[in-house]
Amino acid sequence: MAHPRKHQCALLNLPINPGAHIIKRGPRSPHLGRTTRLTKAGREFKACCPFHNEKTPSFYVNDEKGFYHCFGCEAHGDAIRWLTDQRGMPFMDAVKEL
Predict the structure, then answer these.
(1) 69 in helix, strand or coil?
(2) Is the Cβ–Cβ distance between 49 and 55 less than 8 Å?
(3) Which pTM was predicted?
(4) What is the pLDDT of residues 14-51, one digit of tens each?
(5) 27 Cβ partners below 8 Å, 6+ apart?
(6) CB 75 within 8 A of CB 2
(7) Across-strand partners of 45?
(8) Most CB within 10 Å of its CB: which of 9, 24, 36, 87?
(9) For 40-88, how does the pLDDT look when each residue is reduced to its tens digit (9 = 90+)?
């Protein structure tokens, strides 16, 4: 029986940590920008948080680090978490989309 590659999950044919693998593939702001109006703010993007009502932006997306964070409601996550929380996708569907 052949052994899976060192960092590969044999059952799903995915990297052991698919989130880290996907984050390394490129910026996430284009995915989040489909449903949230992002504006450039230095090296990050900012917007009004899609998880709660607010008048001034407290939601930031950092492509270099691969995550988003809201300083108002403390929502935090990566691209997979965005798709599962904001768009209601199951985890495996989110992995496939990215």
Answers:
(1) strand
(2) no
(3) 0.69
(4) 555 555 555 555 556 777 777 788 999 999 999 999 99
(5) 63
(6) no
(7) 40, 61
(8) 36
(9) 999 999 999 999 999 999 999 998 888 899 999 999 988 888 888 888 8
